[in-house]
Amino acid sequence: MGLYSTAMETIEAYTGLSPAAFFTIAALMFVTYRIVCSMFVDPEEFNDKKPIDANISSTQPIPIPAPIQEPVQLGDMTEEELRAYNGSDPSKPLLMAIKGQIYDVSPSRMFYGPGGPYALFAGREASRALALMSFDPRDLTADLEGLSESELEVLQDWEYKFMEKYVKVGQIVTEKIAVLQTDDGEANVKKEE
Ligand code: HEM
User: Fold this and answer.
1) 108 and 29 assigned to the same domain
2) Within a domain: 192
3) Are residues 79 and 161 in the same domain?
4) Cα–chain-centroid distance for residue 80?
5) Ligand 1 centroid vs 66 CA: distance in angstroms?
6) How high does pLDDT run on average in the chain?
7) Where are the transmembrane segments (predicted)?
8) How far is the CA of 33 from the centre of ligand 1 (A)?
9) CA 20 to 30 Å from 31, out of 3, 94, 106, 165?
């Protein structure tokens, strides 16, 4: 009993708090400490963690990301033909056109590939949509009619970004024409089917 009362008196003398207040504050500090600790990983536990690959059982195939192909020059293409390069065929590159120029955006598959946030632009001429910062499919066109100065500037900035980041692989044409050389050297212009 003597020890208990000495301890209580010591707490009061040193902290200026009643023993009840002292223990309440101590308990609150302990609870706060536990809550904060639970927000962090124990350093030992963290170091013990195996690398991600080691967690994959040897019976499971390790997913191999599709290799990024070197950009191939594709030349003239109609908007209709461009649509085939929207990521639905994984063997084809992902293409996107701005101001009639076609860029290979395959390195950014996470943006433009199926399920990506900008998948709607893949295989399309996206000039108007980019100028207006619009996700409306009706704006997936090269038609810049009625755009303001500042919207055209936005489009220009996008074009610079694409020119810098991606390889240009072709250009949009309204229709494809083939120039055939006849026997007498004359050129015959023929619409391609
Ligand atoms: C809430 C609004 C938006 C947010 C938070 C956002 C955020 C982002 C971020 C973080 C990136 C990645 C940038 C990088 O790593 O290079 C990005 C890229 C992009 N954003 Fe947005 N974005 C928004 C709206 C839009 C809109 C409205 C458009 C056009 C209609 C757009 C078109 C794009 C395009 C085309 C890219 C890819 C550029 C590239 O290929 O490097 N974004 N966005």
Assistant:
1) no
2) no
3) yes
4) 26
5) 23
6) 84
7) 20-41
8) 41
9) 3
Ligand 1 atom nearest 135 alpha carbon: 30
Mean pLDDT of 3-12: 79
CA distance 125 to 98: 6
90 and 139 belong to one structural domain:
yes
Tell me how far apart the alpha carbons of residues 97 and 144 are, in angstroms, rounded to a whole number: 14
Number of independent structural domains in the chain = 2
Q: Is the pLDDT of residue 43 over 60?
A: no
In a domain, 145, yes or no: yes
Ligand 1-lining residues (CB < 6 angstroms): 105, 108, 111, 118, 129-130, 133-135, 165
- 109 CA → ligand 1 middle, Å: 13
Interval between CA 134 and ligand 1 midpoint (Å): 11
For the beta carbon of residue 8, count every other beta carbon within 10 angstroms: 14
Which has the higher per-residue pLDDT, 101 or 55?
Answer: 101
Domain membership of residue 120 as a residue range: 75-172
User: How confident is residue 10, by pLDDT bands cut at 50, 70 and 90?
Assistant: confident
As a whole number of angstroms, the distance between CA 106 and CA 85 comes to 10
Q: For 144-162, what is the mean pLDDT?
A: 98
If you measure from the C-alpha of residue 128 to the centroid of ligand 1, how many angstroms do you get, rounded to a whole number?
15
- 42 and 84 share a domain? no
Which residue has a Cα nearest atom 2 of ligand 1?
Answer: 133
Read off the pLDDT of each residue in 16-40 and give the average, rounded to a whole number.
77
Tell me whether residue 141 is in a domain: yes
Question: What pLDDT, on a 0 to 100 scale, did the predictor assign at position 13?
Answer: 84
